[in-house]
Specification:
There is one protein chain. This protein is about 65% helix and about 0% strand. With about 450 residues, the chain is an all-alpha fold. Helix 2 packs across helix 5 and helix 4 runs antiparallel to helix 5.
Length: about 450
């Protein structure tokens, strides 16, 4: 019974982190995005959700402690955000928000260590089904809330309050349902894919379809990554050469290509924002302005950027620039080290089995990298995408660790400290015996 309650809570927490359930409670001020802490109801909901999370962390403290090593870089980045209170331009605000971002990171570690990858995808699938259904109902029955009537008239925003947020969520939903082959019933998976795709198109977001197209191209590349080294090396060189040529072509003809997509060369003003924030970055190069310490509307340092732009910017529309503004080169370095380590684990996991589940971590890491080039921010409190990143980092590291133990045959002699053989298949993608062997053979042999 307790396990069932815990699963329902995890599902509710994932939905809460989308901000879809609480968006209507934030108020009507155009600047409420910076001061949600002023809403007592939101603070109470936040305290309850993270309080329950802490209770489950304590209940499974051994798993949680074991996952801390796998989460080292992401936890260090969250703790740097907390430490930035010492030099923040708004220390009290930074302290409040950094405490919540640490709590969000803790939930990600708990979720990634508590549930194996197949179960995570099942929970995420139901999360996005609920999110997509509620957004469709909101747009159709409550169009004054669910459809943009101002800046982007006619574009759907659902319960998320902004068309790009809906497009981003539905993109992740598509990746989840695609990766859940063999985990969800086929009918449910196809229905989820179609619903998320329809809402992504109705949102009018341009970034989401472009990132989806890039992810589809990468999907074909994942098959190549499973090839033998004698095949992999020349194919990698060929693809790298092709990719470099494509980049040069895109840069050279960017105006024409963006015109085909209905975009300006400035990417709807994004390049102007990027140029404007460079001056602010250079004056706080190493440690930034503190977590959530820069963008404050017409107050503080962000007022100068807004004056240069002629409008009030809420973020840099680039996750890496936002991270640099808030935590400086130190924050960027921590994220880069953690991302590269996670990417390495994702590649190892991919080569362990052909199941689509094995490609989920790489798909999510690619989504993070591509989407944060034009949107932002990366590190954010009460944010589903940061919590999922932490969970995927932990899950991929643990899956690779179990795979390495299977390869070395150490699980047979490790005693009660190791996961039992019945638990092991949940952490690694299943595969049938073939050229690369069987990950879960009775003899404990792994792929070679």
């Amino acid at each position: 019974m307790l396990n069932l309650i815990e699963q329902w809570f995890a599902l509710l927490m994932l939905l809460y982190l989308t901000s879809g359930l609480t968006g209507f409670l934030a108020g009507d001020s155009p600047f409420h995005v910076w001061r949600l802490e002023d809403n007592p109801l939101l603070l109470a909901i936040q305290a309850v959700m993270y309080g329950i999370t802490l209770g489950f962390v304590v209940l499974h403290w051994r798993k949680f402690i074991g996952a801390l090593r796998a989460s080292g870089w992401v936890l260090a980045l969250a703790l740097l955000a907390l430490a930035s209170t010492l030099w923040s331009s708004d220390p009290a605000f930074t302290l409040r928000r950094s405490l919540v971002v640490v709590a969000t990171t803790v939930f990600g570690i708990y979720f990634g260590s508590r549930y194996p990858l197949p179960q995570q995808l099942r929970m995420l699938a139901w999360t996005f089904i609920l999110l997509a259904t509620l957004s469709a109902v909101c747009a159709l029955l409550l169009p004054q809330y669910g459809i943009d009537k101002q800046l982007h008239r006619g574009d759907w925003q659902g319960i998320l309050g902004q068309k790009n947020l809906l497009g981003k969520a539905m993109l992740v939903g598509i990746v989840v349902f695609w990766s859940a082959k063999g985990i969800l019933p086929r009918v449910l998976r196809m229905a989820g894919l179609l619903l998320c795709a329809a809402l992504m198109l109705m949102s009018g977001s341009r970034a989401a379809p472009m990132v989806l197209a890039a992810l589809l191209v990468l999907t074909a590349g994942y098959r190549i990554l499973r090839a033998r080294m004698t095949t992999l090396v020349p194919l990698t060189i060929l693809l790298l050469g092709t990719g470099i040529g494509a980049v040069f072509f895109i840069v050279r003809h960017r105006a024409f290509l963006l015109g085909l997509l209905g975009r300006e060369v400035t990417l709807t003003g994004r390049t102007k924002i990027w140029t404007a924030v460079w001056g602010a970055i250079s004056s706080h190069l190493m440690f930034g302005y503190g977590f959530s310490g820069f963008w404050a509307g017409l107050h503080g340092e962000s007022a100068r950027v807004s004056a240069m732009l002629g409008f009030v910017a809420r973020h840099a529309h680039n996750g890496f620039l936002d991270l640099w503004l808030e935590l400086g080169i130190a924050g960027l370095a921590l994220f880069a080290f953690g991302y590269l380590q996670a990417l390495s684990n994702g590649l190892r996991l991919l080569r362990m089995g052909p199941h689509r589940l094995a490609s989920w971590p790489l798909q999510y890491f690619a989504f993070m990298l591509l989407y944060d080039l034009a949107e932002g921010p990366i590190l954010r409190q009460n944010n589903l995408y940061w919590a999922l990143y932490v969970a995927v980092v932990v899950s991929a590291a643990e899956a690779v660790s179990v795979g390495r133990q299977l390869r070395d045959g150490s699980l047979a002699y490790a005693g009660p400290r190791c996961k039992t053989r019945e638990q092991q298949p949940d952490h690694l993608p299943r595969r049938t015996a073939g050229r690369l062997g069987n990950l879960h053979s009775e003899t404990g042999r792994s792929v070679a």
